[in-house]
């Protein structure tokens, strides 16, 4: 069986950002739980900022390749900094190119990084709904991280993972048990 592909989609306009750090830490937790469940797993990162102006239209080859990568994932981690109390326009440009329901139940973890605690609900109120609209299955609460608390990220992910990672693992196992032509 092919390895489980965990793809982190990072919607920060700045490459190699703190948002990417958080996305990679979440993906590593997902990889660990899938490996413990007997799957082999790989992780990769898609930096939306690298798609540049190709996001402004339809049919750009690099954007098509990025969308193919997203569709080929077994788990998505979609991470964004918080801009104006929601996700970035850059991420929105990419997500707008995915049709309603197109992700067909793909297990997805929404992740937001913010400077202020009053944005804590943004991951559930703004990011999760757009992901569900395009067909993502978000079986867990999203991950919300304050910039000022990045040094506490391992402990935060331990607490989140204790509840959330079994649900993600179960969803991946269920999807992999269904013949490809059905999914």
TrEMBL record:
This is NAD(P)H-dependent oxidoreductase. It comes from the Bacteria. Residues 5-149 form the NADPH-dependent FMN reductase-like domain. InterPro entries: Flavoprotein-like_sf, FMN_Rdtase-like_dom, NAD(P)H-dep_FMN_reductase. It comes from Frankia umida. Keywords: Flavoprotein, FMN, Oxidoreductase. Gene3D superfamilies: 3.40.50.360. Pfam families: FMN_red.
